[in-house]
Structure formats: C-alpha cells, structure tokens
TrEMBL record:
Gene3D superfamilies: PCu(A)C copper chaperone (2.60.40.1890). Residues 1-21 form the signal peptide. Pfam families: PCuAC. Coiled coil: none annotated. Keywords: Signal. It comes from Streptomyces hoynatensis. Transmembrane segments: none annotated. This is Copper chaperone PCu(A)C.
Amino acid sequence: MTRARAALGLAAALLLGPALAGCASDADAAGGGTPELTAEGAYIPRPPTAELAGGFLTIENTGDADDALTSVTSEAADSVEIHTTEGGTMHQADALLVPAGGELRLAHGGSHLMIMGLDSRPAEGDTVPIQLHFEKSPAISLEVPVRPATYTGE
Ligand SMILES: [Cu+2]
C-alpha cells in the first residue's frame, strides 16, 4: 500500500515536471528571458573643468534577452546624459539597446555618457561614482577612474 502511494507520488511528479517546463518556455517566447549584464573598461578622460566630462565603457550582455540602458545618475554630478554621435554631432538618447549575446560600446568618437556639473574638477587617478539604470536588469554601480585627458581606451 505504501509502495503504491509512493508510485502515485512519483507519477504526479513526472506529470508536473514537464507542465512546469512548458510554462517557463512560454514565458521565454513572450520575452521573459533574462539579460545578464556586466560593465567593463569604464573611464573618464580628465575634463578641463568640472562643468562637462565624457564617460566611456562597454556593457556586455551574456543573457538571452535584450536590455536597454535607460538612464545614468551620479551623486557627484548634477546630471548625466546618454549621447550618441552622428556625423560629428551629439544627440541625447532616451535609451540605448544592450542586445542579448552582444554588447553596448560607449567609445571615443561614438556613443558616450555626458557628465554635467561635477562637484569639482577630478584629477587623474580619482574616481567618479556612477549608477547605470536598465529597463530590466538591476542597476550597476561603478567607481569610474579618471584617465589623462587624451586617453581613448586603447
Ligand atoms: Cu555628448
């Protein structure tokens, strides 16, 4: 009797298992995958004044869903904007895609962060705290090192 009940329990588990897996894959099809983000190589070329500094980094997404960088904040600055560069002209972007299995590169001459109104002009070797905010992933906090003014990450 006990053995029969155990067998029934096992059968129930086998039936439930695939049902749950089915739910999970339905969620994936509806865009329910998970982005996995890491930020690398962040730097700020030393700005001439505290008014305006550029910020560069690469955000890698090893997950199976797209994400987007939606805003950037810093407790050491008045505001931080996300900019793209087209034909030498900067434009403010509301959000930048971080594609699944790919990366978002904010690099010299291209997209970048525009950090405005720093508390003071940072020196080489200082760090500036920034927080990256995403559509899906939790925020990433970074201490971004200040490099020489001519540094381009290469
Ligand atoms: Cu800019």
